[in-house]
Design brief:
Elements lengths: L1 H12 L13 H7 L5 E2 L11 E7 L11 E10 L7 H8 L10 H6 L4 H4 L7 H6 L6 H20 L5 E4 H4 L3 E4 L6 H8 L6 E6 L10 E2 L5 E3 L5 E7 L2
Antiparallel strand pairs: 1-2, 2-6, 3-4, 3-5, 3-9, 6-9, 7-8
């Protein structure tokens, strides 16, 4: 009954999304966050802290697909937002991609700098970077602040809940071979799905479209850089 209730809320919150692209969650995520039913899809990770995690809405039947198998899915992809990033998420997904600033990871973890703290302009200042993070070069501090500002701006321009792709919108399902043809999160998720299974999958940017995001051929942003994604997937075959 609880899963049906959650699924109903997701249907209201969603529209369309994916094929390497997507977004959704928001308030419905809060219901999931308190659940123990999230399945981690990345080795040595757990539950809602996993960079790729799955919540099964409808169980499937039959065998799991093998590497190289041809599969077909229905999907809706949407943006989740990065408000729930922990200091570990920030280091692994964002800071590691900022050239010349990767060495700050240990200090970020030591100071437990999560997304909320990073985006607080009254706390995370150039002065804080110098005192707490030990950044001596002003240009490094400015570079870090500028990167933070771009991340904050992205949250406004591409708000959580924005659907970026869907099989319904495209008028066809997405078919690919496991091991190639899909972003890492989708590949990991579908490997764990039996025919007929329907699930919500949430992934961090390093398992999605990364630091570059996704653009259309004319340069229009479809998925912004560092975007956390939400997919509603159904394995057809």
């Amino acid at each position: 009954m609880m899963q049906l209730f959650i699924y109903f809320i997701l249907l209201i919150a969603s529209c369309d999304a994916f094929a390497p692209s997507s977004r959704l969650i928001t308030k419905s995520t809060m219901l999931f966050e308190s659940s123990e039913d999230w399945i981690p899809l990345v080795k040595d990770s757990a539950g809602v802290s996993s960079p790729v995690r799955k919540f099964i809405l409808i169980e499937g039947i039959g065998e799991l697909p093998s590497d190289g198998s041809s599969v077909e899915i229905e999907y809706t992809g949407s943006l989740v937002g990065e408000a729930d990033w922990s200091s570990k998420d920030i280091c692994e997904c964002w800071l590691s991609q900022l050239q010349g600033l990767e060495h700050l990871s240990e200090r970020f973890l030591l100071n437990n700098i999560d997304f909320s703290m990073l985006c607080d302009e009254n706390v995370f200042t150039e002065e804080y970077c110098a005192t707490a993070l030990g950044i001596i070069k002003k240009i490094e501090a400015k570079k870090l602040i500028m990167a933070r500002n771009r991340l904050k701006k992205s949250q406004i321009e591409y708000p959580a809940g924005t659907v970026f792709d869907s099989s319904a919108k495209r008028g066809k399902n997405f078919s690919f071979k496991l091991g190639k043809g899909a972003i890492r999160a989708i590949d990991l998720a579908v490997r764990s799905m039996r025919e007929g299974e329907k699930a919500i999958v949430v992934c961090r940017a390093d398992y999605g479209y990364g630091a570059e995001g996704l653009r259309s051929r004319d340069g229009t942003v479809i998925v912004p850089p560092f975007a956390t994604l939400n997919f509603e997937l159904k394995r057809i075959c």
